[in-house]
Design a protein that fits this description.
Helix content is 28%, strand content 27%. With 67 residues, the protein is of the alpha+beta class. Strands 1-2 form a two-stranded parallel sheet. Strands 3-4 form a two-stranded antiparallel sheet.
């Protein structure tokens, strides 16, 4: 079965991760078959200053739209 890697900004609670792990496990077993015990999920908490999109760090403030 698969190992699912989840990368997201830091700050989610253990309860949120637990709920996501359960939902991903259920969806994987329903879609691919197998047993829940065979599904591994790895959480990677990324700081906003370690993630960029379009050349801009997520930690940088968003400029106001031009009028």
């Amino acid at each position: 079965m698969p190992t699912i890697r989840v990368e997201m900004f830091e700050g989610r609670t253990v309860e949120q991760k637990r709920a996501l792990a359960q939902a991903l496990t259920e969806a994987t077993v329903r879609t691919l078959g197998g047993s829940p015990g065979a599904v591994d999920i790895l959480f990677y908490d990324i700081a906003k200053h370690d993630w960029a999109t379009g050349g801009k760090l997520w930690s940088e403030p968003v400029p106001p739209p031009a009028s």
